[in-house]
Amino acid sequence: MFVSDAAGIVAAQGIGGMRRGSASGATRIAGTTVDLRWRDLAACRGADTSLFFPESRSTDLREALAYCARCPVTEECLAEAHRYPMVKEGIWGGLSVNERKRLRRSRRLKSS
Fold first, then answer.
1. Per the structure, how many domains does the chain have?
2. 105 within some domain
3. Which of 37, 44, 51 is closest to 96 using CA atoms?
4. At residue 47, does pLDDT exceed 80?
5. pTM of the full predicted structure?
6. Domain-embedded: residue 19
7. What is the crossing angle of helices 97-111 and 74-83, to 10°?
8. In the predicted model, what is the mean pLDDT of the chain?
9. What DSSP character marks residue 26?
10. Which range of residues forms the domain containing residue 107?
11. Which residue among 26, 45, 49, 99 has its CA within the 20 to 30 Å range from the CA of 91?
């Protein structure tokens, strides 16, 4: 399936056995109902996904991060990436893959 905007990329990747959402915005993911209506509020809604999923490490991410800086749902976006550890690419919630790894590691250390 092709998704034309960054906010819809989760559905395009079929992450975690995702099924299409209902009119209420609820979606079944790996047997759990998740509310994905936050995507409708995302600043990246309608943006080119290649900004958030660059082809190379040398790609300038400032444009993608500018969307995140003005986005009202970065926490929900970041939580989405953390919910699925297999999300190993792209900018989510204003953080790169390496930044998300460091955050996960930091949270694990604090909780132990």
1. 1
2. yes
3. 51
4. yes
5. 0.68
6. yes
7. 80
8. 76
9. E
10. 6-111
11. 26
